[in-house]
Amino acid sequence: MTHSSFRTKMVEAFRIRVLFCYAVVLFTLVVIVFQFINLQLVQGADYELKARTNMESFVPIVASRGEIFDRTFSTTNTNNRVIVSNRPSFNISTVPAKFNSKKEMQQALEKLSEIVDVDVNAVMKDYNASNPWQRVLVLEDVSFEKIVKIASHKQIYRNIDWEVAPVRVYNYGSMFSHIVGYIGSISKKEFLELRDQGYQYYQKLGKSGVERQYDRELRGVDGSVKRIVDVKNRTEGEEIGFQPVSGNNLVLTMDLEIQKAAYEAFEGFVGSCVVIKPATGEIVALVSRPGYDPNAIISRDNSDIIRKLYNDKERPFLNRVIQSKYPPASTFKLVTAIAALEEEKWEAERIVNCPGYFVLKGLRDTVIYDYAVFGNINLYEAIGKSASVYFYTMGHKIGPTTIMNYANHFGLSERSGIDLPGEVSGFVPSQKWKRKAFGEGWYDGDTVNLSIGQGFLAVTPISMANLVCAIVNNGIIYKPHVVKEIRSPDNNQVLKSIEPEKIREIPLSPSTLNVIKTGMRLSVKSGTSRRLSYLPVPFAGKTGTAQTRSVRDSKYTQHGWFVGYGPHGADPRDAYVIMVMVEYGIAGAATAVPVAEKVFSKMIEQGYFDVVQK
Amino acid sequence: MLFRSDFNKLDYVLFIAVIMVIAFGIVTIYSAGYDSVLGVNNNMYKRQIIWFVLGFSIMLGLTFLDYRIFGDYSLQIFGFVLVILILTSFFGPRIRNMRAWISFGAFSIQPSEFMKLATIIVLAKYLELRERDIYRFKELLVPTVIVLIPMLFIMKQPDFGTAMIFVPVLFAMLFAAGADVTHLVAIILIAVIGLFVPMSLTYYEWVNPESESILLKLYYNGGQLYLVSVVFFVIASVTFLLHLFRVNKYFRRIYIPSYVFSIGLFVSVFFQRYMKDYQKKRILVFLKPDLDPLGSGYNVIQSKIAIGSGGFFGKGFMEGTQTRLGFLPEKTSDFIVAVIAEEWGFVGAMFLLLALFTIVFRGLKISMYTKDKFGALLVIGISALFFVHFIINIGMVIGFMPVTGLPLTFVSYGGSNLLSAMMGVGLLLSVSMHRSSM
User: Fold this and answer.
1) Using the beta-carbon criterion (under 8 Å), do A36 and B178 form an inter-chain contact?
2) pLDDT surpasses 50 at A232
3) Interface ipTM > 0.90
4) How far is A90 from chain B (nearest CA, A)?
5) Which of A163, A367, B9, B11 is most buried per CB count within 10 Å?
6) Could you tell me which of B313, B302, B333 has the C-alpha nearest to residue B33?
7) What CATH number does the domain containing A143 carry?
8) Contact A17 B178 (CB under 8 A)
9) Per the CB < 8 Å rule, is A44 touching B304?
10) Closest CA relative to residue B42, chosen from B24, B30, B60
11) pLDDT tens digits for B323-335?
């Protein structure tokens, strides 16, 4: 093998090997190019979305919650009565990373605490040291004046920022507590239930009353700010993503003045009152006492207040009009009387001797005593004077089933469907129920008790008000409601007007109603409600005194009732029905009627009965 | 005739490709160094420009210097750089847990980058001298030792990624020098068996900590496997001796696979038993980053998002959101390709790839037409070095290769890497200018 031929062979071998290298390099280039095609051209859109998700952070702009007005609202009126509004307020916040040191941040906060009530230590303790770019809330609900002060001295209060954060204001405090309710942060449970309906974890929502019932109208739609953030969550820039849409306003059926009168008439008492317009179901006033101040509940340091309210034996959160049940007592005599007359088992003129006691015949005679002796009276007088012996006799004669049927017809055992959350239904017993519950039959004694509204019967005050509505309104009951209309945020447009909705139509003969109404009128003229007789408008009513066990000291106690309406004899369309229920009242006549008197007086003053008086 | 100017022989294509790639890199370092929240640039691009100016003058100097002088002084160069490397590995300042740099005021030098070139020079020279015998297996020993010395000291720093670069470069040069392909394949197989088996066992153990596989037990008991290894070693040696006495030329078919199996098994048992658990896991994460998604896995995910979201035309200069907002990690160094792909899109990425691969292709072309072996092997070594850097870095950025932390030569920020790469290009240009062509 010569030298040159070896060289040639070597060169040839080297060339082949370099060509192989060419092939390897070319192959890897092709593979890499394919991956770029795959990433950038095939999956490009997916990755673009991922890049967007990385950098976009949406900060909510909380929508302004709708305001709530009373029934006198008018667009031309510049001085509308605002029951619930929003107060412009601010939150103060800061970004810890903007300070050079922890000490510097502490100093800045201490400087700030000279003008606003900042808990410097709490803020310093709270903030997340691992992510100093995360904004820290320093103080909620700061007034505009304070913000102006901070803003005009920006060089002193460096790195201190503020955001608009309106605060709900319940202008009449506890006066409307059970109607408007209050709002609160959404709970985990609520969020899980409501997130399909667009609720967000950071939002507040109505927890009770109208705030809860009409939350979807009031809340509006939150907007958002789109922030471009970097990997450390620092903001590079921001733009409005969605403008918030304010919530709709509500106009209540309630009248501030009447509500105020009713609320004040209850000063010192526990109980409830409702004023309804029977022709529509509109609730003009609704009071349940004790109440609570919604402003305190939504305030910054509310935990003590809420705990105290929850532990209160008199249960201030309870809306007694719709969430409590009591024996209706003598007010129920109206049902007994209607049942007897309608079933033609009794005549209004029938005379019954009322000697002050009633003898229930049986194996062994039972004597039931009444407190008063009325002698021989007819049904009119019996209603007017609330003569129990008369109704014992009547009830005993017509039997329990008739009474129960009528109680059920009037809806005493059902919910009214009022537009407030948490309503409970009353209870009307039956023979079947008694057998099941007590293992014994229905006794005549039970019938006698039932006929005057005692015993097992338990009704909600709203259902008693509805009973009177039916009497006034020829057997028709409209669904009681507190909201009259839903208006656009600028109030210019009525989005929804709540139309009267018939919930019951009880066929009652005019003669029956006439007897009942005459009896109720007699009660005011000369009977148990005569305290109202001096008023310039003819009212009618029925009192009641329920005996029940007290929640205070578990002794037997009395609740005073009054149900009534006015003006008597006028067109039902102009009438108003009142229900007053005073817990621990001595008797209906003594405690409930004065409340009705004050409310009616106020209504007369406010011109509710002007049509009739003229 | 040290300096013989013959501009006609300058490889302009290579020259322009290199300048374009470096310029693209500096522009990208400028973009990636901008903090859009604070509105300031970290000014790394300025330092890179300084390194480029320095590198450019050295590159030109080398271009006009006859490369053969490096062959003549190859051992001295190798020794000199090795001493500096060793000193750095032991006494250098600790930066990011590595003793890899020596500082000169504001600038620092990474000797391992220059060690690569020095090693390539000495290898090229050695292989030229051994050209006729390199097909023999024993001739592979000296080149391996030459490479292992700097590798060990670089691992000591510890800079595992950089050390590993030497291996493929060595193989490429041995291959080009005419080594027996069977030998090379056998060595690769031994490495694969020796590493792959313990790694898969570690992985299996990691994923199923409760498992009691027979293979695992065997490995931990060890004795039997050593015995198997020794048996095969004996078989291999006997057939090898018979082969030496030319009993049968087909014995080669027995003893080579036997050696491969025997040594591979031995290495694997050795690794499995004597490597600490955390060491094995570290290698495992290196090979399979999705085992540690919060660590290096995150980087690759963000890198793919950056590349993919660039689309066809890219988001525009300084408009890459992944880059600008910091979601992309190591954006001026390891993941700079993702910045380019995000801001310049598919078009920019293709431009970069073509320019980079042009450098490799030109290198191969120069080597093919170089008559003297030293020049040809030098060029092959340098081209292989560039190529390996390119594919390891780009492969990592596009999610094909483990995250090694190797920069993209010419493009990534880093003075020593740029300087040594430009020196390498200077040598390529010098060979193309001074070679005696075939």
Assistant:
1) no
2) yes
3) yes
4) 26
5) B11
6) B333
7) 3.30.70
8) yes
9) no
10) B30
11) 888 888 888 989 9
